[in-house]
Amino acid sequence: MKNLKTSTFRTVMIMAVLVAFSIPSFAQQSKLTDPEIASVAVTANQIDINYAAIAKEKSKNTEILRFAETMSNDHKAIIAQAVALVTKLKVTPKDNAVSQKLNADAEKTKKALKAKSGKAFDKAYIDNEVAYHKAVIAAVEGTLIPATKNSELKELLQKAVPALKTHLEHAEMVQKSLSK
Amino acid sequence: MKKVILTGSIGICLFSILFLLNGCSSAPPKPKVYTVEIKDMKFIPEDITVKKGDTIIWINKDMVTHDVTEEVSKAWSSGPIQSGGSWKMPVTDEANYYCSIHMVMKGKIELE
Which of A78, A81, A166 sits opposite B102 (nearest CB)? Predict the structure, then answer.
């Protein structure tokens, strides 16, 4: 039992560290164009919607379910605004190395989450949400916003930051509540 | 001379009484309408002081859906307010409120 707990903890920590360090550094290394930035933004939002779908399927914890519902709705709303903007600007989001890396990492995380159940799943999900939101905030503030040329796209990314920070605060609140 | 002073005093008294009566019979001040913006995941202003009977309108200027819910006993709630939407409520009491979708967003209504 102790080994299982240690193993779960180790997996979660590795996932969290991978997420926290891979997005900002990888995005910084690549010089992104606006269509690529739009693709990264949509991909990052879609990944969190996918994590929420797994949580809604696997968790029975009310706090986790409510948080997952909020993530699903909010990130869908952000994608809708992004799609409306790129349609207006006649920009087609362009797949790129950062989007691909995000998707590849997300596949590993989804696999790890799906392998868990009960309280171990709830903990893994919320720990990943904390790490993922920290990483996305760092990438959006530190790399994507400074690299964006179009002022409306830049404004959209800036408007998303308070929502991401509130999600992080909410995730940390749920994380604290689960650890009691 | 005494008569003039007496007449003047009576005049001042009558004027004062009329002035006071007029003040007493005037209608109470009309209830006011206040606006709270929901912007950047905050209620702006977070703390608002109004009179009982005044109305507050919450306007959602964020990209995401919010609500306005009494925090202690969920005595009242707006239900979901979509981006660009609004909700108004006549104030009957003081309250701490929050967004039940994003529970870290909090606001307060105080009475004058």
Answer: A166
CB B81 within 8 Å of CB B97:
no
For the segment A28-79, what is each residue's pLDDT rounded down to a tens digit?
556 899 999 999 999 999 999 999 999 999 999 999 999 999 999 999 999 9
Q: Which two tokens stand for residue B1?
A: 């001379």
The answer to whether A11 faces chain B, any CB pair under 8 Å, is no
CA distances from B111 to A132, B51, B93 (A): 42, 5, 7
Residue A160's nearest CA partner among B40, B61, B82, B100 is B40
Residues 15-44, chain B, touching A (beta carbon < 8 A) = 40-42
Residues of chain B found within 8 Å of residue A70, distances taken between Cβ atoms: 101-102
pLDDT at A59: 98
CA B82 centroid distance within chain:
24
Nearest to A77 among B64, B103, B105 (CB): B64
What single-letter DSSP state applies at residue B108? E
DSSP B52: T
Is B83–A77 a contact, with Cβ atoms under 8 angstroms apart?
yes
Cα three-residue angle B81-B87-B90, rounded to 5 degrees: 150
Pairing of strands B33-39, B69-70: unpaired
**Interchain CB distance below 8 Å, A78 and B64:** yes
Choose the closest CB to A166 out of B41, B65, B83.
B41
Asked if residue B45 has a cis previous peptide bond (ω within 30° of 0), the answer is: yes
The b-or-e profile of A67-85 (16+ CB within 10 A means b, else e) is: bbebbbbbbebbbeebeeb
